[in-house]
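quick q for whoever's on today - can somebody do inverse folding on this one?? i tried earlier but teh output was garbage lol. tokens:
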């Protein structure tokens, strides 16, 4: 009986991950797990925590702050507490922590988590730098290298823990939603690293040729390189070509498009999933994490293929690489 999982009255997955403290507190109140007097006590404790942080901010000269700054620091405090509350496997236990522990204790526990996440993110960043792609897209390196480096320099976990600091102009294939601060940066780096490691299975000149086939001005466009490379590799598998080259002829691409036009969405989904199952061993991808990321990316690709089929635009999905002299360093 001890192995039976506890059932939580609150579904943590349905809570707002970006405003976890507020969301958890609201859910607890709605389910009658916390009283109005307990909420009032928590609110007063949050104000005491803000006063404590304000004195530290002003080097003990004052506990008074401008309204905007006080709100900013309060948001940071609650974000930090929320990080700790997320660590409870059962959300109901997180509610108990809110009523049994002081906000300062909860905050300090969350602050330790932030320190750990910063160190983890920095380690991931070093791996991302080592795996950086040789590509001329104007948004890729400026975001993945320069902007992330700027985040680590400017991020203030004591008073602005909830801030992203940067705008991630280069998108990941799989969207990152509902989280901010170091949580966002850590996941962004995890995703970019997975995408880089996949693209490292191909020659830079082959990726360049593929992207030139998609749009010969791709350097100035905002898009995800991994998504285009994965789509191109799947197209090669579907057309019976070697995916390692990312190369299918115009005739092969046309024939593949004609085949897909004859299929319904369910058949397309099955074909792409089967192609991925062939692609992973062909590229000798043994990392479970990378395999999971690739498979998590398939629904987006499948949805895009089905949409383009419906609009008779599959020739814009499965394309022939265009070898150009615009990047002579690859020659």
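ok took a stab at it. sequence:
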């Amino acid at each position: 009986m001890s192995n039976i999982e506890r059932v939580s009255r609150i579904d943590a997955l349905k809570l707002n991950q970006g405003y976890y403290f507020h969301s958890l507190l609201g859910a607890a109140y709605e389910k009658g797990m916390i009283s109005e007097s307990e909420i009032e006590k928590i609110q007063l404790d949050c104000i005491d925590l803000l006063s404590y942080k304000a004195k530290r901010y002003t080097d003990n000269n004052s506990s008074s702050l401008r309204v905007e700054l006080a709100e900013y620091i309060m948001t940071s405090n609650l974000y930090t507490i929320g990080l700790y509350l997320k660590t409870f496997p059962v959300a109901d236990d997180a509610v108990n922590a809110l009523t049994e522990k002081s906000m300062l204790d909860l905050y300090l526990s969350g602050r330790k988590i932030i320190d750990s996440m910063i160190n983890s993110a920095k380690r991931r960043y070093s791996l991302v730098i080592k795996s950086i792609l040789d590509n001329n897209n104007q948004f890729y390196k400026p975001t993945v290298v320069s902007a992330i480096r700027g985040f680590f320099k400017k991020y203030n976990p004591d008073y602005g823990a909830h801030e992203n600091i940067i705008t991630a102009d280069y998108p990941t294939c799989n969207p990152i939603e509902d989280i901010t601060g170091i949580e966002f940066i850590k996941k962004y780096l995890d995703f970019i690293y997975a995408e880089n490691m996949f693209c490292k299975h191909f020659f830079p000149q082959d990726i360049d040729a593929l992207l030139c086939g998609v749009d010969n001005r791709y350097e100035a466009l905002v898009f995800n390189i991994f998504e285009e490379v994965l789509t191109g590799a799947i197209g090669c598998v579907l057309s019976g070509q070697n995916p390692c080259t990312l190369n299918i002829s115009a005739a092969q691409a046309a024939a593949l498009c004609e085949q897909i036009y004859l299929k319904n969405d369910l058949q397309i989904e099955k074909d792409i999933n089967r192609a991925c199952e062939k692609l992973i061993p062909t590229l000798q991808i043994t990392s479970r994490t990378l395999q999971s990321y690739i498979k998590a990316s398939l629904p987006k690709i499948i949805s895009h293929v089905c949409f383009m089929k419906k609009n008779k635009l599959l020739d814009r999905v499965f394309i022939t690489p265009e070898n150009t002299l615009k990047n002579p360093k690859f020659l």
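fwiw The chain has a mean pLDDT of 94. also The radius of gyration is 24 Å. so keep that in mind when u check it
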